[in-house]
Amino acid sequence: MARKSLDVTCPVARTLDIVGARWTLLIIRDLLPGTMRFQDLQERLPHMAPNVLSDRLKILEEHGLVRREFYSDHPPRAAYSLTDPGRELGVIVLALGRWGLRHLGGKLSPGLQHDECLRHLQKASEALIRRPVQRVKSAGKSAAKTARGARN
């Protein structure tokens, strides 16, 4: 049964339909530095059930945010990486991390998990610096620009 959209007229609601489920932005965060195998993602997100990870990856792939490449046929094994639209979400993930540090810093549990999260955010930030997100013009604007050029 397909999930009903929060609001088909709102881009924020439509985006949340795709990335608003629990764990999804953490998958994006962990894929920002580069390609990861399914089992690597499981290790980084140990409290996430494998079927939930599989479901979230399928949704991200269906929406063109994640690319899956098989590296073994028997048994089938896949590696996952972000597409350019998926990498654009890295800016949002980093903004959430910065907001959390600023507003929840004193309420975060000190220790290993907090340190691990900071390491994840640092790797994600470095990945975006090494390969900045390129804004892609929408197809509508691009087609209109081409049409204008043909008329001139």
From TrEMBL:
GO molecular function: DNA binding
Domain HTH hxlR-type intervals: 10-108
Highest taxon above the source species: Bacteria
Keywords: DNA-binding, Transcription, Transcription regulation
InterPro entries found in the cross-reference section: HTH_HxlR, WH-like_DNA-bd_sf, WH_DNA-bd_sf
Alphabetical list of PANTHER family matching this protein: TRANSCRIPTIONAL REGULATOR, MARR FAMILY (PTHR33204), TRANSCRIPTIONAL REGULATORY PROTEIN (PTHR33204:SF18)
UniProt name for this protein: Transcriptional regulator
Species of origin: Bradyrhizobium frederickii
Phylogenetic placement of the source organism: Bacteria, Pseudomonadati, Pseudomonadota, Alphaproteobacteria, Hyphomicrobiales
